[in-house]
Amino acid sequence: EEFLWNALDDPAATERAVNRGYRRAVRWLPEDVLEALLRFFVDPASAPALWISGVPIDEEVPPTPALPGDFRLPICETWLLGVARILGVPYGMLGFYTSNARGGLIRDLAPKPGLGGINNPDIRLSFHRDVPANIVGADCEPDGFLLLAARGDPGHQAKTLVCSNRALAARLSPLELAALRRSPIRAECVRSGTGDVSPYGMPFHAVEGPEDDPKITLFYIPAHREFTHRIVSDDPETQAAYDHAVEIASEICDEVALQAGDLLVINNARCNHGRTPFTPRLDGTDRWLLKTFVSASGWRRPSQMGEDSDANRSRRLAWPGLL
User: Fold this and answer.
1) Of the listed ranges 51-55, 109-113, 171-175, the one predicted with least confidence
2) Cβ(208)–Cβ(217) under 8 Å?
3) Alpha-carbon gap, residue 274 to 127, rounded angstroms
4) Which of 60, 95, 121, 231 could pair covalently with 319 via S-S, beta carbons 3.0-4.6 A apart?
């Protein structure tokens, strides 16, 4: 039962599996690592991201999948979800491979050349926060997320880019920060065939929150066959400040080349992240990461979201439709 759970088909078995993983993680993790995880979301002085090495993984990892499907890595899964449960509640969103054997609670990140989206290895994923509520307008923004490497990139080209918002704000001028707080930014999609422009999500302010702990939202839409994207503002000073912020993020970010047994924990409010392009071998030895989101606010009953109905539950869990 422990390794045959499905988050959609059998949530009770999934909860038991998550709790077992939590107990293992609490018993095994060194005290200082456990302390850092427990304070990760609640301590203003906590690091915006944690890189933990030596996490147990499956003794035999099958070839890296070429396409989404039913893949089970029992040891990786139990550690990913166990550490996520220390931080809060792990969750997935409908639309993220929910037809696979895990019911969408864990997503596989493996190179898929030629396909749009974050699994395309040929493109550089520019800096962004995951599912930002100030853009998508849905109640599904994660407090953080975890990436566990079942297998690293053998060429060490694929690097996760992590930029602290505090460090980024420190490099922007007071006038630039004021401009990013003053005027909104918006994401637009330009259709490849017609050139038609349509908005993506809602206009947003790139800098919010207190000056000593700002939430900076950079945004990026992965390459798609049908459109390109651009980030624009009607305020020239805000536009220039945003473009400069993206440049600075590239200069000061940490580059993390995740290898087998490396776990990266990212605070989604205090970091923007991206990924370098890389050339996959497509021989089963390519980079394979497992990802899950974390909510640090605990479970909320549907009644706390409004009417306790199937429609409302779907609205809460579904990937927001923005186009």
Assistant:
1) 109-113
2) yes
3) 5
4) 95
Report, in angstroms and rounded to the nearest whole number, the Rg of the chain calculated over CA atoms.
Answer: 20
**Total length of the chain:** 323
- 191: helix, coil or strand? strand
For 263-283, what is the mean pLDDT?
96
Nearest-angstrom CA–CA distance, 226 and 138: 24
Q: CA-based angle 69:74:276, to the nearest 5?
A: 60
What does the pLDDT look like over 291-302, one tens digit per residue? 999 999 754 444
In the DSSP assignment, the letter for residue 88 is: S
CA distances from 147 to 35, 44, 79, 154, 293 (A): 19, 22, 11, 17, 9
Query: Using N-to-C axis directions, what is the helix angle for 74-87 and 31-38, rounded to 10°?
Result: 60
Query: How far is residue 21's CA from residue 81's CA, in Å, rounded to a whole number?
Result: 6
Residue 145 and residue 297 in contact, taking contact as beta carbons nearer than 8 Å: no
Q: What DSSP element (H or E) covers 35?
A: helix 31-38
Query: Strands (DSSP E) along 167-253, which ranges?
Result: 185-191, 197-204, 207-208, 215-216, 227-232
Nearest to 20, CA basis, from 59, 75, 58, 57: 75
Three-state secondary-structure class, residue 229? strand
* Strands, E assignment, 96-138: 107-109, 125-128
Task: Quote helix, strand, coil % in the chain, to nearest 5.
Answer: 30, 25, 50
- Name the token pair of 293: 């989101």
Nearest to 53 by CA among 277, 292, 256, 316: 256
CB atoms within 10 A of CB 98: 19
| Contact in structure between 41 and 87 (CB atoms under 8 Å) | yes
